[in-house]
Design goal:
The complex is a heterodimer of chains A (about 120) and B (about 110). With about 120 residues, chain A is mainly β. Chain A has strands at about 1-5, 10, 15-25, 35-40, 45-55, 60, 70-75, 80-85, 95-100, 110-115, 115-120. Chain B contains no helices and eleven strands. Chain B is globular. Chain B starts with a strand and ends with a strand. Classes of the chains: A mainly beta (about 120), B mainly beta (about 110). The interface of A and B includes residues 63, 97 and 109 of A.
Chain lengths: ~120, ~110
């Protein structure tokens, strides 16, 4: 099982960026059977939940720090997860990890993680 | 929102010793959805424990989790050199996730 993030980079404050996460190697269950999540880690800091969505895409959830600025989406036909980030701020600078939310019995724990995409917001 | 507080912030031990890491929640959560992750420098986190006490596949049995309500513990029975890393607890509830701030386990 592999998750590969892309789309990170340097962007000016107020700018936009779209992260992608390509999933492969899911066995037994498919990508469309899993909740997916974005988690970020600012330089030298701990982990912070950003957003997650249900398997069907009907449920979208956001941390207060990104609500109204970030949009999570998925394309189950392409086995891909996305994070559209608008109105970026310096405090959004972080490594952004895509992760799979495990099915039972993992109960909302993240059992597979990507290597992360680096987002730097600076003028 | 439930706040998770991990202690100590840094733990200095030697290989072969026992490590006890604490994660305390600001309020009790009865669903038991607490997980522990290990993160090494330059790497993504990896899951160790889910549902407070279940070891993830491939995790050595020297790692164990316990606790309920507001107090949870990750124990490493005999430290190996590869265990020195940062450890995070995480909970899920009310459609949101929270993480503890992490405990750095360093070689003494």
């Amino acid at each position: 099982v592999q998750l590969v993030e892309s789309g990170g980079g340097l962007v000016k404050p107020g700018g936009s960026l779209r992260l992608s996460c390509a999933a492969s190697g899911f066995s037994g269950f498919s990508f469309s059977d899993y909740f997916m999540i974005w988690i970020r880690q600012a330089p030298g800091e701990g982990l912070e939940w950003v957003s997650h969505m249900t398997d069907s895409g009907s449920g979208l959830y956001y941390a207060d720090s990104v609500k109204g600025r970030f949009t999570i989406s998925r394309d189950n036909a392409k086995n891909s997860l996305y994070l559209q980030m608008n109105s970026l701020r310096a405090e959004d600078t972080a490594i952004y990890y895509c992760a799979r939310v495990g099915r039972f019995p993992y109960n909302y724990a993240m059992d597979v993680w990507g290597r992360g995409a680096t987002v730097t917001v600076s003028s | 929102e439930i706040v998770l507080t991990q202690s100590p912030g840094t733990l200095s031990l030697s290989p072969g010793e026992r490590a006890t890491l604490s994660c305390r929640a600001s309020q009790s959560f009865t669903n038991g959805f607490l997980a522990w992750y290990q993160q090494k420098p330059g790497q993504a986190p990896r899951i160790l424990i889910y549902d407070a006490s279940s070891r993830a596949p491939g995790i050595p049995d020297r790692f164990s989790g316990s606790g309920s309500g507001t107090d949870f513990t990750l124990t490493i029975s005999r430290l190996e050199p590869e265990d020195f890393a940062v450890y995070y607890c995480q909970q899920y509830g009310s459609s949101s996730y929270t993480f503890g701030q992490g405990t750095k386990l360093e070689i003494k």
